[in-house]
Write a structure and sequence with these properties.
Helix 2 runs antiparallel to helix 3 and helix 3 runs antiparallel to helix 5. The protein is 81% helix and 0% strand. The protein has a single domain, classed as Up-down Bundle (Methane Monooxygenase Hydroxylase, Chain G, domain 1). The radius of gyration is 13 Å and the shape is globular. The protein is built from five helices and no strands. The longest helix is centred in the last third of the chain and has 22 residues.
Amino acid sequence: MLDQIQAEKIECDQFIFLLTLHNMAMCYQKLGILEECSICLEACIDHLDSDYLQKYFSNPDQPSLRLKMLKYKCKTHMQICALLS
């Protein structure tokens, strides 16, 4: 599913892609598969900087979306820190 979303580059699916990657990272962490967890978290950080998500989260009509993006960035960075410790 993720490969198809990436291949088709459908903008509205990019947020779903981000959430799926983050959830996969959490599952890998709980299973103790830390290498895969790290890969997913790094992909999340890269994906958060994509043009579409920046445009989506910067919507001036919905300031709560900006907070949501910051929440995902913080959670992802905290998870990476937890893996490194």
